[in-house]
UniProtKB/TrEMBL annotation:
Pfam entry (one): Laminin_G_3
Taxonomic source organism: Spirosoma telluris
Superkingdom of source: Bacteria
UniProt name for this protein: LamG domain-containing protein
One GO MF term attached to the UniProt entry: hydrolase activity, hydrolyzing O-glycosyl compounds
GO biological process: carbohydrate metabolic process
Organism phylogeny: Bacteria, Pseudomonadati, Bacteroidota, Cytophagia, Cytophagales
Length: 99
């Protein structure tokens, strides 16, 4: 599976893509404004875990979605801009072709 999570600060929208196609989109207004995501304190990027103040990640969770991811994640990319639908589709096609 090829997943893309896109946050567009100019419109405060979040889009989630699976295999090059949008599967979810929503309006994300942080304090009613548009712009970059704002975190109150510096934080590390966690993929496959939910942050926990004392350990850095949750080894046990109160809700199912907060637990650790048990599997493999490959080819993680972070961009400094919101990708267009065409960009996402093109990236998926390149990955699918093994490039």
């Amino acid at each position: 599976m090829h997943y893309v999570f896109k946050y567009d600060g100019s419109s405060s929208t979040i889009d989630i893509y699976a295999n090059g196609s949008v599967v979810s989109n929503s309006d994300y207004r942080q304090r009613g404004t548009t712009g970059p995501l704002v975190f109150p304190t510096p934080t590390q990027v966690l993929i496959g875990a939910f942050p926990n103040a004392s350990t850095g990640f949750a080894s046990s969770a109160t809700q199912v979605w907060q637990g650790l991811f048990n599997g493999s994640i490959d080819e993680v990319r972070v961009y400094n801009k919101a990708l267009s639908d065409t960009d996402v589709s093109s990236l998926y096609q390149l990955e699918k072709a093994g490039r």
